UniProtKB/TrEMBL annotation:
Organism of derivation: Mycolicibacterium gadium (Mycobacterium gadium)
Pfam families: HATPase_c_3
Gene3D superfamilies (alphabetical): Histidine kinase-like ATPase, C-terminal domain
Name of this protein: ATP-binding protein
InterPro entries listed in its UniProt record: HATPase_C_sf (IPR036890)
Amino acid sequence: MPRRTTCVTPSAARLTDSLRDIGYDFSSAVADLVDNSITAGATEVDVLIEFEGESSKVFIADNGHGMTLNGLTEAMRFGSRRSYGRGDLGRYGLGLKTASLSQGRCLTVVTRTSNGRRVIQARQLDLDLVAEYDDWLIIEPDRNVAIERARNLLEDAPGTVVIWEKLDRVLPTNNASGGWARRRFETLPQKVIEHLAMVFHKFLSGEASGERLVITVNGQKLKPWDPYARREMETRELPKQRFEIDNGGIAGTVTLRRFVLPGRDKFSSINEFERLSGPLKWNRQQGLYIYRAGRLVQWGGWAGIRSIDEHTKLARASVEFDTDLDEAFNINVAKMRVSVPGQLRQMIERPINEICSLADDLYRKSTNSKHERDRSITDSFSGGSDVGLALKGAALEVGEIRAFKKIAAELRKSEPAIAKSLGL
C-alpha cells in the first residue's frame, strides 16, 4: 500500500529572505555572476556600477551564448534543474539568484541566443512581489530605461545582461542619495577590480582555458593579479606535485605548486612589490591559493597545517582541483570557502613546511641585508638633517613646499632609512 504523502512547499517570502544571507559581499556576488558568464562561453564581461541614489543599478553584461525563454525561466528557479558537467563553475543552481539578491531586492535578466533572429527575452525576480504573494513568482518586466539599455547591448550579438536594482544591502535605508551613500558606492568599483583580477587571474591571462577573458569594470580593463609573481626574475618555483585523493570510491587528482617570492629589495620595483602584497597585504596573503576548475575560491592561510608568520610571508602555494572533487572539498554556495580534506592535508604538510623553511631563510637574509644597508646609509648621511633642512628651505623659497611634502612622504615609504637620515 503506498504511503500517504504531503507536499510541504516552503514559504517563498521567508526562504528568499533567509537566502540573502549566505556569505556574499558585493565583490564576491559580482564574481558569482562572472562564473555564469564563463560557463556560457563568454569571452567578454562588462560590469557597470552606477550611482543614482535610490535608483542606483549594477549591470553585468556578457557575450556568451545566451538563453532561450525556457532556459531563462529555468535559470530563475531557486535550485535550477540543469545538470553541471565537469569543469562547470556552477554548482547548486542558486548563484544567479542568491548572489544578486544578497545585494538588492530586484533581479532582471535580459538575454538573446540567436545571431540570425533578434529575439530578446527578459524576466524579473522582485522580492517585493514575492513577499506580497508569498509565492515563487517571476514576471516579464515592463520596459524601462535599464531594460532598454540591456536590449541595446544585445542588438548586435547574443549574450546576457543581468541587472541589479533596489540595492538595499548596498545603500543606506535613509538618505540613499546623500554624500555618505555616494562615497561608499564610489569605493565599490575599485574593490571589484581588485577582487576579480585575483579570483579570475587564470582566465584573464588565458592560463585556465587557452583564451584570454576580457573583463571591464566601469570601462577599466582588468589585468590579471598573479599571486606568485612569476614575471619576477627572483621568484623561485619548486617542482610541481600531484596527489590522488579518494572521493566516495573514485580517485581525484589535486595539483600542488609552490613558490617563494623575492624579498622587497629583489623585486623589479617598489611599486610591483606593493602590488603583489595583494588585497590582504603580505602577511595574510601568504599560504594556500585553492582553485576549483581554474577559478580561485580561497586564498591566504595554511588550512590548519601551520600558522601565519611574518618570517614565511613570501611563501605561496596553489592547490588545484576539478569539479569532480567538490564533495571532498565541501565547497560552499558562495564559492568563497572550502575545507581541505584531511587526507590531502597530511599529504601536503611536508611540502608546505619545506617551502616555508625556504621562505624563512630568504626573509632572514633579506632582513639582515637591509639592516646592513640602512647602517651604511646612516653613516654616509651623518650630516643629513642639515641637507634635509636645506632642501625644505629651497622648496619654500621657490613656492614648491606642497611638492616637497609629497616627495618626503614617498621617500619615507620607499626609503625610510634615507628619509630618517635627512630628518624627513
